[in-house]
């Protein structure tokens, strides 16, 4: 079945109104709100015990991970606490814990591993199913539906907008769904008549980038995958998934040919281009856990490319350089569409003046300007074992850098231009050196924009002003305006011809803007943590109604009218 974009509203409306899980609280049950402990419909201990039995003991009640640092908590452990604190900012810790998430504000800072601050499990799920099969996922969905419980899916806990965590919920932890089957000579999706040519991988939705890259590298293959070692297929593919390989091969969602998933009604289904096509389309781009819980994905693999890599530095340590830094950033990024047409992809960072980061090799200075780590592939990969010649990537940058020198006053403004070329024999070799090492364990509110060719090339004055406003805030960094400035802009050149022209583009619900985009820009606002500054972080959780009622009674204030639902 071919889907047009105009079909989306109909599908969305149907899924919203027809999904038994989504409507269970409103139409099939009289009660509007989800069950929480203390309300009559919350399952009895015996019901939870029966669920645990049906799962062969895979039901967990994990304590909040930060509790090991809080005397008075059952899991307090003075010896373990320093280890936890030192791992709290590492991406590697949170993905192995059944409830921990990377960003504190999505647990409402309810149990940070620091003494002197409160610790409770209120910001976390109450029960967790450690799923290793689709049947475990199915039992969880059916139980949550039957008992009107809030359901959440956690994989690694990377989610930038907190969707892998919810209080008072039953969480399905899909991290251990690790199926693996490589199809070296084509793949025939179930109920389809023909075999798709090429190479494919069927992998559990808990499979993570580093494991996939490593295992596929043994047979000289790779996937269109993400830049973080621990990112898992579940959230990555349902979000569309961009990659260094996307400008060549399309979005990650474009590579998928079959999904096994548990639907909101608790059925285990197969979705592909021959059955459940609507769900197949909706899952691939519709966002994590929106339409179903995928347990495996079958996706295309590609021969691992040999790469030329270049680090490009155009940086100044001088503070008062806004009039040069932002126009310079606009000029360089205006070259991205033509660089993309030449096969370049990569990750750039736009630094406002005086960014406290030491990037100029051999100096100790805060900087402003531009940095990019970029690659070109030898595609199709050649059979020779010699490394690609890094000068081919350098030659793409030579005219841009000489134009910079003649257009901007780089000498007076003390700019350093530096290019460091390297070569890699495989994607894994490149990734080992250049994976994303963003620290976790803090507060985050991200936002981003997709920039197409006209946005990048038609009005460089406006583009420069935009970068300045985003980086410094609308008041130019004076602090008069309350809007928080974004600081460093991550500017990822991860789209291009392979995304724009992908034949599967109408088979997925990936945001259509990607089909024209070159640059994905992202900014991470970092609201202060309450334990450090007493400023309130972004609040998402709502106080339990019974607790709120008691607090109002104790304060002698009149009760508020009962809210329709416990959670927003
Ligand atoms: C260091 C780092 C690097 C990144 N690099 C890239 C990149 O290069 N390209 C890119 O596109 N993105 C990248 N991302 C973003 C990443 O793809 C998303 O955060 C993604 O949602 C993570 O998915 P997850 O399953 O690992 O995380 P989780 O937080 O566990 O899940 C994310 C969302 O998906 C849902 N979900 C996860 N698995 C399932 C499942 N099996 N069934 C149903 N719902 C599920 C969760 O409920 C949640 O809503 C990066 C993120 C980080 C932190």
From TrEMBL:
<dbReference type="Pfam" id="PF01565">
    <property type="entry name" value="FAD_binding_4"/>
</dbReference>
<keyword id="KW-0732">Signal</keyword>
<dbReference type="GO" id="GO:0016491">
    <property type="term" value="F:oxidoreductase activity"/>
</dbReference>
<dbReference type="InterPro" id="IPR036318">
    <property type="entry name" value="FAD-bd_PCMH-like_sf"/>
</dbReference>
<feature type="domain" description="FAD-binding PCMH-type">
    <location>
        <begin position="121"/>
        <end position="304"/>
    </location>
</feature>
<dbReference type="InterPro" id="IPR016166">
    <property type="entry name" value="FAD-bd_PCMH"/>
</dbReference>
<keyword id="KW-0560">Oxidoreductase</keyword>
<feature type="signal peptide">
    <location>
        <begin position="1"/>
        <end position="25"/>
    </location>
</feature>
<keyword id="KW-0285">Flavoprotein</keyword>
<comment type="similarity">
    <text>Belongs to the oxygen-dependent FAD-linked oxidoreductase family.</text>
</comment>
<dbReference type="GO" id="GO:0071949">
    <property type="term" value="F:FAD binding"/>
</dbReference>
<dbReference type="InterPro" id="IPR016169">
    <property type="entry name" value="FAD-bd_PCMH_sub2"/>
</dbReference>
<keyword id="KW-0274">FAD</keyword>
<dbReference type="InterPro" id="IPR050416">
    <property type="entry name" value="FAD-linked_Oxidoreductase"/>
</dbReference>
<dbReference type="InterPro" id="IPR006094">
    <property type="entry name" value="Oxid_FAD_bind_N"/>
</dbReference>
<protein>
    <recommendedName>
        <fullName>FAD-binding PCMH-type domain-containing protein</fullName>
    </recommendedName>
</protein>
